[in-house]
Amino acid sequence: KQCYVFHSHDMAHKEIQRREKERLLREAFKKEQFILYYQPQLSMNSGQIIGMEALIRWQHPEQGIIPPENFITLVEQLGLIVELGNWAIKTVCEQMSKWHRSGLPFIQVAVNLSPAHFQDFGLIDTVQDLLNKTGIPAQYLELEVTESAMQTKGHIEVFKQLREIGVKIAIDDFGTGFSCLASLKQL
């Protein structure tokens, strides 16, 4: 009634593709198609491995390994990013426990978290519970967050609580956005 609707085949095609990707992503959660790769972090002085970063990938049965830049934004839009991040923390803690039981020393492993995690009131309990269940000393778990998450006032209390547990916090991709060294120093 008394309105105009503009339609293009290109827009319709893009929407169909997005909905299909959304369906595939929901299926990926159900079928546990996500995997983690561990990228070593090396000391520039000694060349020794001093830590690792867990990098998430979608292991699609037909398309193969899909990098995060091709699905993370949609996972965030679907409201599934906290679930995916919690899975990543759990998987990292379980893997570190397996490595330790096989005789390897503990090594720091970093997990990227979305700013949405710091709006989830269960993050502290989730992290503490996983550390307790797996026996991982807190100082070996590092949570990487973006600058914008670090500068959000409501998140500061969560960072404090994580630090009290002993978990390390790191800024991921520092300098790629608006950087205010004064506010970071204050944090």
Topology overview:
Blueprint: H1 9-30, E1 34-42, E2 49-60, E3 64-66, H2 72-77, H3 81-101, E4 108-112, H4 123-134, E5 141-146, H5 147-150, H6 156-165, E6 168-172, H7 181-186
Parallel strand pairs: 2-4, 4-5, 5-6
Antiparallel strand pairs: 1-2, 2-3
Helix pairs in contact: 3-4, 4-6
Account of the protein in words:
This protein has 187 residues and is an alpha/beta fold. It has 7 helices and 6 strands. The chain has helices spanning 9-30, 72-77, 81-101, 123-134, 147-150, 156-165, 181-186, and strands at residues 34-42, 49-60, 64-66, 108-112, 141-146, 168-172. Strands 1, 2, 3, 4, 5 and 6 form a 6-stranded mixed β-sheet that branches. A hairpin with a 3-residue loop joins strand 2 (49-60) and strand 3 (64-66). Helix 3 packs parallel to helix 4 (123-134) and helix 4 runs parallel beside helix 6 (156-165).
Summing up helix and strand content along with how strands pair, one would put the structural category as alpha/beta
Summarize the main sheet.
6 strands, mixed
Q: Roughly what percent helix?
A: 40-55%
Query: How many helices does DSSP assign?
Result: 7
Q: Gap between N and C termini, in Å?
A: 54 Å
Task: Provide the residue-averaged pLDDT.
Answer: 87
* Low-pLDDT sequence parts: none
Based on CA atoms alone, the radius of gyration comes out at: 19 Å
Number of strands: 6
Overall outline:
globular
Helix-strand pattern: HEEEHHEHEHHEH
Percent range for β-strand residues: 15-25%
